[in-house]
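Milestone 3.1: sequence recovery, worked example.
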């Protein structure tokens, strides 16, 4: 077994129909430029159009690197807490037990596929969604399942996690937007102070 280096990103900014906006295209280009300095072996993406397009743009900046779909990266709620934090109760209105079970199944599939060492040293890019980035970080830190809540992730922000064969996972970066100019950061979160 060898280290799997995961470079995980939320797709670029999208409109209400799930299509990348002009801002999302630019964010994706800048993310691809940042990743171009790395020895990337593959780009994996969610099957949803906003992630597919972002991955195509990123892959265009990484000549010769295959760009492939991974169903495990689809957008979903990975965990519904049994004891609901009051501040999150409204978020989970309408989730029934079957939806919660399906979310848990998808979350387990994501971890099983990507959150482990590889057979050989690999550098893989995952273009996915905010909840899946949060779930992978929570898992790598061995935090309780409900801790995925509140781990917000910016569009085209970069998270890097190493999965070693003889050590605990290492979160190297989380939600890093150093490759994006200030006007392209925090897209999708509404009006907030931008660091």
């Amino acid at each position: 077994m060898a280290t799997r280096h995961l470079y995980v990103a939320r797709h670029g900014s999208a409109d209400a129909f799930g299509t990348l906006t002009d801002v999302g295209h630019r964010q994706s280009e800048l993310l691809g430029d940042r990743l171009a300095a790395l020895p990337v072996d593959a780009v994996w993406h969610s099957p949803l159009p906003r992630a597919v397009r972002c991955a195509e743009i990123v892959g265009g900046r990484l000549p010769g690197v295959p760009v492939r779909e991974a169903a495990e990266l689809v957008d979903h709620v990975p965990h519904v807490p049994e004891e609901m934090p009051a501040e999150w109760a409204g978020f989970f209105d309408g989730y029934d037990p079957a939806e919660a079970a399906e979310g848990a199944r998808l979350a387990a599939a994501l971890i099983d596929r990507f959150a482990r060492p590889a057979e050989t040293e690999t550098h893989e890019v995952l273009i996915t969604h905010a909840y899946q980035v949060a779930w992978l970080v929570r898992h790598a830190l061995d935090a309780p399942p409900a801790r995925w809540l509140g781990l917000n992730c910016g569009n085209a922000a970069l998270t890097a996690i190493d999965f070693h064969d003889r050590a605990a996972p290492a979160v190297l970066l989380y939600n890093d937007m150093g490759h994006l100019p200030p006007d392209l950061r925090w897209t999708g979160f509404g009006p907030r102070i931008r660091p």
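The beta strands are 4-10, 42-45, 67-69, 122-128, 158-163, 170-176. Helices lie at 22-35, 49-60, 97-114, 130-140.
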